[in-house]
Design a protein that fits this description.
It contains 13 helices and 14 strands. The chain is α/β, with parallel strands linked by helices and about 400 residues long. The protein has two domains: about 280 residues, Vaccinia Virus protein VP39 (Rossmann fold, 3-Layer(aba) Sandwich), CATH 3.40.50.150; about 100 residues, no CATH class. The chain has a ten-stranded mixed beta sheet, sandwiched between helices. The protein has a two-stranded antiparallel sheet with strand order 11-12. It has a two-stranded antiparallel ribbon with strand order 13-14. Helix 1 packs across helix 13. The longest helix is centred in the C-terminal third of the chain and has 14 residues. It is globular and about 60 Å long. The relative contact order is 0.14.
Length: about 400
């Protein structure tokens, strides 16, 4: 059996690796890189080494990695840093692709550009906000990414996928970007097909995550013209909305995009399915104090607040959140600040059978991302929660990997 060799960039604790190697024995990891800038601690890389070994793993600034260090590979994968596009920031404050984290896209681009034997496939993940950033030119960042990959000889399809829509235990919406180089058999297959048929029916993402063919809206075709500087300066300069919908494809700089909805009637995993019994929960995870503060933060607000830096009052409105979290539904999205006992609007709190309130344990956060139990064991509970907040839902990668491997049979 011929192996599909993987290089994993921005590897975190190995979500892509686990998902793909779970999907098929064909996938083989040949090199990985994980580096956390501006900190001496490298917990994610240390966990990666503990679980998979030190061989062919790089804990080095990606900007200092030479193309010669990467072995020959068939697929380049990575969840490239997304802080500058994250829903955790107000979109008007988002710097997008020019921000400190956003520029790391160009390291992926450099590795692809300088590789004389380019990988046949690319699989990347980011937050869905990427489709509409920055606020001043909606969709410009995504247009730059698509254009640069098209220039390098790739057909690229994308989908925004909410893991919970396909039975997984967490409501986590992310964009998945799948590229096929012109030397690959799938590239030639897409060229013979038409754009609509591929992204709605026959494509890797369409096969992995079914689309309701009766609910397809806002179909649109357009070209992204000009070199990358011209795209940067001119793309959608006067547009109020991004032209990119949650599904689409680019072929030779020609875009076809549409809004699609999931089609799934299989098994569904809920938060209640993954939580541990009360007797296994350490006392530190129970909410024993500051209940009123938790309730305030989770509740609806309509109040006047004062901005010290700008010296003015403003009206603040915020809707209520379910408190405690529903056990009969998938969880809300895990955030990096999930750990620690400090009351927070966004941390998960569940009620036990005996009526006590508690936060989620790291092992439960791992299960919500479909990682093996105790995958991040070895660092603090706060750091374990942070690592899961940065991770992806492995089940999504596994389903994509299965469909890709079937297409290569």
């Amino acid at each position: 059996m011929e192996k599909i060799k993987i290089v994993e960039l921005f590897a975190g604790v190995g979500g892509f690796r686990i998902g793909l190697t779970n999907a098929s024995e064909k996938f083989e990891m040949v090199w990985s890189n994980q580096w956390e800038p501006k900190t001496k601690s490298q917990e994610a890389s240390e966990i990666y080494i503990k679980r998979f070994g030190e061989e062919n793993h790089s804990n080095k600034d990606i900007a200092k990695v030479s193309i010669d260090e990467l072995p020959e590979h068939n697929i380049l994968v990575g969840g490239f840093p997304c802080q500058d596009y994250s829903v955790a920031k107000c979109l008007s404050q988002s710097k997008g692709i020019t921000g400190k984290k956003g520029v790391l896209w160009w390291e992926i681009h450099r590795i692809l550009r300088d590789n004389k034997n380019k990988p046949e496939f690319i699989l990347l993940e980011n937050v869905d906000r990427l489709l509409s950033s920055p606020a001043s030119q909606r969709g410009r960042d995504f247009a730059i990414i698509l254009s640069s990959l098209s220039n390098l000889g790739y057909i690229v399809e994308w989908r925004i996928i909410n893991a919970a829509d396909y039975g997984m235990p967490q409501r986590r919406r992310r964009i998945f970007i799948m590229g096929y180089h012109k030397k690959s058999s799938i590239y030639k297959e897409i060229k013979k097909d038409n754009s609509e048929k591929w992204i709605f029916n026959n494509g890797t993402l369409a096969k992995a995550f079914g689309i309701n063919i009766n609910k397809i809206f806002f179909k649109k075709k357009f070209n992204i013209d000009g070199n990358l500087i011209e795209v940067t300066n001119n793309f959608n300069k006067k547009g109020k909305f991004s032209p990119f919908q949650n599904c689409g494809i680019i072929i030779d700089r020609k875009i076809f995009t549409a809004k699609v909805f999931p089609d799934y009637d299989g098994e569904r995993i809920t938060l209640g399915d993954i939580v541990l019994p009360e007797e296994k929960i350490p006392e530190e995870f129970f909410v024993n104090g500051e209940y009123e503060k938790w309730e305030y933060l989770k509740g609806a607000k309509r109040e006047k607040r004062f901005n010290k830096s700008r010296n003015f009052y403003y009206n603040y409105n915020e809707g209520a959140m379910i408190f405690p979290d529903s056990l009969d539904k998938p969880s809300r999205t895990i955030i990096t600040g999930e750990g620690g006992s400090t009351p927070s609007r966004f941390k998960h709190v569940v009620k036990t059978e005996n009526g006590r309130l508690r936060r989620l344990m790291p092992l439960e956060l791992e299960r919500l991302n479909m990682f093996p139990d105790n995958h991040t064991k070895g660092c603090t509970n706060i750091k374990r929660a942070f690592l899961m907040g940065n991770a992806l839902v492995i089940g999504v990668i596994e389903r994509i990997g299965k469909e890709l491997s079937l297409k290569l049979d």
